[in-house]
Automatic annotation (TrEMBL):
This is ABC transporter ATP-binding protein. It is found in: Cell membrane. It is a peripheral membrane protein. GO terms for biological process: response to antibiotic. The lineage of its organism: Bacteria, Bacillati, Actinomycetota, Actinomycetes, Micromonosporales. InterPro entries: AAA+_ATPase, ABC_transporter-like_ATP-bd, ABC_transporter-like_CS, ABC_transporter_ATP-binding, P-loop_NTPase.
Length: 300
């Protein structure tokens, strides 16, 4: 498939801090690509360089076959950008806001009103943006990024302020625009979001890409145990430790959990003892991959 984005050896320094330190990757046409990393990993800086909002100190970026920096007027109608912090024109209602964005691209007001409906803000159309909740402002920001039908969409933590229902609705919307052939580049702290939506992800830390690939492939490549849980009391803890000496057994008073690299044998032994009450089986996830690569220490 054709490359929509090519990042080659990109670097960005702020004094002694290497925010982006020699990053290279490609994003194919129609791909849903995720950039993951802890706070301060360089995700937003990298995204802004790709969007043409920030000049790289070294390396090259190609977006739709053109350089995004210096700011390229030919690219602006073809990309949609939702920034990490929402910023709107002052004293405008939600309807006036999105119609203003639409007018900048020659998009008719009816299309703008349609996007208010898509993100569930029709009932807030006459509310001034400073009166919107954080989640409502986030949804309006996303609608403004999509109102002109861009070929490439950049979303910086789009669901950070959304409740679970709004998150799920936005996931459906993002799948739909991606299924229409648009390329989507996403940064997020939600590993379940990346695992569900992204064709490929790149995990960053300290300005470097540590590993990239399809989420399922990254998970399969992690040497992690399978966690098998049953209801507490179904099997005594000491009995489970004797039964599964090569596994780690714990009990929190609600579930007895067996962490094992031989799940078939554990499940078979529990089934033989009719001890499957409350059974839950959990393999590794993208979150496990993320923590394995970036560590578990607190990041400010």
């Amino acid at each position: 498939m054709a490359q929509t984005i090519r990042v080659d050896g990109v670097r960005k320094w702020y004094g002694d801090t290497h925010a982006v330190d020699g990053v290279s990757f490609d994003v194919e046409e129609g791909e849903f690509f995720g950039i993951l990393g802890p706070n301060g990993a360089g995700k937003t800086t990298l995204l802004e360089i790709m969007e043409g909002l920030r000049k790289p100190d070294d390396g090259e970026v190609s977006l739709l076959g053109m350089r995004p920096w210096p700011r390229n007027p030919r690219l602006l109608p073809r990309i949609g950008v939702q920034l990490q912090a929402s910023s709107f024109f002052e004293r405008l209602t939600a309807r006036e806001q999105i119609r203003t964005f639409a007018s900048l691209y020659g998009t008719p007001p009816a299309a703008a009103d349609h996007w208010l409906e898509v993100v569930g803000l029709t009932d807030k159309a006459d509310t001034r943006t400073e009166k919107l909740s954080g989640g409502q402002a986030q949804r309006l920001s996303i609608a403004c990024a999509l109102v002109h039908g861009p070929d490439v969409v950049f979303l910086d933590e789009p669901t950070a302020a959304l409740d679970p229902q709004a998150r799920r609705n936005l996931w459906d919307l993002l799948r739909e625009i991606n299924n229409q052939g648009r390329t989507v580049v996403l940064t997020t702290h939600h590993m379940d979001e990346a695992e569900l939506l992204c064709d490929r992800v790149a995990i960053m830390d300290h300005g470097n890409i540590l590993k990239s690939g399809p989420p399922a492939a990254l998970v399969r490549g992690l040497d992690a145990p399978t966690r098998i849980g049953i209801e507490t009391g179904t099997v005594p803890v000491d009995g489970a430790r004797q039964l599964f000496p090569d596994a780690e057994v714990s009990d929190d008073g609600v579930s007895l959990t067996v962490s094992t690299r031989n799940p078939a044998a554990v499940l078979s032994a529990l089934a033989d003892r009719n001890a499957l009450r409350g059974l839950a089986v959990r393999g590794a996830s993208l979150e496990d991959v993320f923590l394995d690569l970036t560590g578990r220490e607190y990041r400010a």
